[in-house]
Amino acid sequence: MNWLTQLFAAGRTPGHRVLPFVTVLFLVTTLASMANLMLPESSPLHVSTYTITLLGKYLSYAMLALAVDVIWGYCGILSLGHGAFFALGGYGMGMYLMRQIGDRGVYGNPDLPDFMVFLNWDSLPWYWMGMDQFWFAMLMALAVPGLLAFVFGWLAFRSRVTGVYLSIMTQALTYALMLAFFRNEMGFGGNNGLTDFKDILGFDLQSDTTRVALFATTALMLGVVYILSHLILKSRMGKVIVAIRDGEARARFLGYRTDLYKVWLFVFSALIAAMAGALYVPQVGIINPGEFSPLNSIEVVVWVAVGGRGTLYGAVIGALLVNYAKTRFTAIMPEGWLFALGALFVLVTLYLPKGLVGLSGQLAARRERKAGKAAQQEAHS
What we know:
Layout: H1 2-12, H2 18-37, H3 49-72, H4 82-101, H5 114-118, H6 134-158, H7 163-181, E1 194-195, E2 199-200, E3 203-204, H8 208-233, H9 236-253, H10 258-284, E4 286-287, H11 294-307, H12 313-332, H13 337-351, H14 359-380
Antiparallel strand pairs: 1-4, 2-3
């Protein structure tokens, strides 16, 4: 139980926020779930199923933001392609959900999804085999993005590609995947993607209980990933990763294989993003090539910057706040939302370089400077 004691102690250490974060996440999830399942709709405290689904979607985004913060905030690698890993994880889950439809589709084919029947496919492609098994589908949902991240990272980091060049390469990766998945020949539904899901593990996806279970599972996985990321980044390996961020040449001079550390962290970050995508799909009910859009990956970076990179919990806060604002503003002024998002990013970059979570520190530093100047003036007088 020594590790548990250390974890709770870390939660009380200023700047770590592990225990408070997990506690708040647990309480909000429990109260929202109970308010949905146990309170009647007439009650003012009742939480609708729509809200539960929306919260689950936000938590999936928070996990994606956490993945970007791990690699950007702590290792200095600005990835503009994490939307690709998110979408690949989502397609893994979507393939499983499509296989669960069986003969309940529009065309009643027990083996082929509706879009394959419509395109006159004769048989199920080999890469769809086994996707009717949940464990295998989830394994593929993580293994494929993880393998892609490993190959990409191995080639890029061993070649010492850094900075804006690496960011462009990650953006090119997700753009190439988007173009590929738009093609009907790929066998993933083309432009329409995968949708019209019925159930998961035998449970109706439209029922309130299933929606709450998916929301609670997403919250649980977010908590697990948060704790695991914290433990890794506060370990000796994490200190090396931060040293690479602050001075890779010096870390390499000291004998560290910086490329291996970066590859490992890049794969870990990609797996988090893939898991977020797999949890996202059954809650929103669709996955299409639009999720590969480079704009989506850039938007994730905005979430992390707004919340505060290099803090973990700041990335989560940024994802929740920006997506809540997006939900509200797209209803009020749908055409102006992107301008508002761009303005928010510029303002945060100029005036809050450490994000919203660094605001208190900035205010405290300003008060100290004012107190110091006042003390100097008083001493001179």
